[in-house]
Amino acid sequence: VILAVASGKGGTGKTTVAVGLARAAGRRVQLLDCDVEEPNDRLFLEGRRTATRVVSVPVPRVDESACDGCGECGRFCRFHAIVAVKDPPLVFPELCHGCGGCILVCPRGALHEEPRRIGVVEVVDAGDVALVEGRLDVGCALVTPLVRAVKARLEGDRPAILDAPPGRSCAVVETLRGADAALLVTEPTPFGLSDLEQALAVARALGLPSGVVVNRVGIGDDRVQAFCRENAVPVLAELPDDRRIAEAGARGESLLDALPEYRGVFESLLEKATRLAATGGGLS
Amino acid sequence: VKLALTTSGETPEAALDPRFGRAPRFLVIETDTGAFEIVNNQAGVDAAHGAGVQAADELARLGVRGLVTGHCGPKTLSVLTRAGIEVYNTDATTVAAAVEAYRSGTLVAAEPA
To answer: Which of A82, A170, A184, B43 is the most buried (most CB within 10 A)?
Structure first.
C-alpha cells in the first residue's frame, strides 16, 4: 500500500504525520520525502546513509552548423526553454523539463541531449524505516523530475509513506499520482479549511480515496469537521493542540520517541488509512 | 517605428506596468502615425516560469522593433536582443509619457550582460 500525506496549507503537520505513521508501522516500511525543496523527515530519524545518487535532466544543445533556423524546436517547447526567434535557437536550461521533444521534432538533427544536474536522492537506513530523500539543488526550480526520481525508488513489496510538498502544485500532483490513498493534514482554522478544499480537489481529480487528519484540535473552530461530514470525507485521526508536540519537534525529536502515548493514534490512523486504500473509499 | 510598451490598461493614458513578462497587456504603437493596438499577455500572467522569455517570443512574432518597460531580466533581454528588438527602461508612469520620452530620444537602450 502507498499512502500519500499531503496538505493544501504548509506547516499543518505533514512531516509529523508521515514520520509518525512510518514509525508506528512496526515493520519494514519505506518513507519517501517528496518535499524536495525542503525535505525534513530525516531530522526525526536516526540512521545511516546507504546511497546517494545525482539526478539530472537531459537538456538540448544546439549544433549551430547543422541548424537552419526553421524554428520547429521553439514552436514545440511549451516551457520556452528553447526559443527560435532567429537562427540558431537560444536554450535556457533552467526552464527545460527534459522531455526531449525538441530533439525529436528537429528535422536537421541539429540538437542533442546533455545532462544537467538538478539534485540528489539519498537513501537512509533507519531501522524499520527506509528513508528516501530527494534534495533539490539550491537555485534549481525543476521540482517535478526530482519527485519522479524519488518515487522511482519505490520497492512495491512493502508499505510506503509519501511525504508530499504543501500546496497543489505540479510536484504535489506528481507525488499523489499512483498512490493508493491520500491523507490530507489540516488544522481547524479558516486557512486550514480553505487549503484543505483545494488539496481535496486535487486528490479527487486524481481519483484517490481521501481521508483527513485534523491537527492541533482545540484551536480555531469546527468548520473543518463540518466540511468533512458534508463532503463524505472521513476524518481518520485528530491530534490535539499539545504544546509538548511542538517542543519535541523543535528539539528534533520524533513524536513517538518523545511522547509514546501518541503511538495508539498513529497505529489506528495507519489501520484506517490502509483500509481506506483497500476499499477505495467506498465504505466511507 | 513599431514600439511595444507594457501596461495594465488599454489606452495611452493608462499606467505603464514596470514589469515585462507579467504585464497584463502590451500597447503596440506605430510611433510615426500614433496608431496603436492592444495585445493581451494572459499567457505571461499565468506562466509558472519563463514569462519574460515567452513574452519576448511574442513581441518578435509581432515584428516589434523596440520595447519600453520598467525592467526585464537577463534571459528575456538575450531573446529580445537576438530578435533585434531594442529595449529601453524607463520609470515613466504612463504609456503616453513613455512614448514621449522615447520620441524625445532621452531613453538609453539596455545592453545584454
So the answer is: A184
Kindly report the backbone phi and psi dihedral angles of residue A98, in degrees, each rounded to the nearest multiple of 5, phi listed first.
75, 30
Do the chains contact at B57 and A79, CB–CB below 8 Å? Answer: no
Q: Which cell numbers hold the place of A91?
A: 536554450
Query: What average pLDDT is seen over chain B?
Result: 93
Candidates A75, A77, A78, A85: best to mutate against B (most CBs of B within 10 A) is A85
How far is it, in rounded angstroms, from Cα B45 to Cα A87? Answer: 27
Smallest CA-to-CA distance from A185 within A200, A174, A206 is with A200
Residue A32 β-bridge partners: A132, A162
Q: Give per-residue pLDDT as tens, A65-120.
A: 999 999 999 999 989 999 988 778 999 998 898 899 999 999 999 999 999 999 99
What φ, ψ does residue A171 adopt, rounded to 5°?
Answer: -65, -35
CA A114, CA B67: separation in Å to the nearest integer? 34
Q: Write out chain A residues lying below 8 Å of B53, CB-based.
A: 80, 83, 92, 95
User: Which residues, at least 6 apart from A15, have a Cβ–Cβ distance to it below 8 Å?
Assistant: A35, A40, A41, A44, A163
Write down the residue that cell numbers 488509512 correspond to.
A273
Q: Do B49 and A79 touch (CB under 8 A)?
A: yes
| Contact flag A85-B78 (C-beta cutoff 8 Å) | no
Closest CA to A28 of A153, A164, A161: A161
Chain A CB contacts of B75 below 8 Å: 92, 95
Cβ distance of A85 and B75 shorter than 8 Å? no
Q: Across the strands, what pairs with A162?
A: A4, A32
pTM of the entire predicted model: 0.82
Question: Side chain identity at A101, as an amino acid letter?
Answer: G
Rounded Cα distance between B49 and A257, Å, is: 42
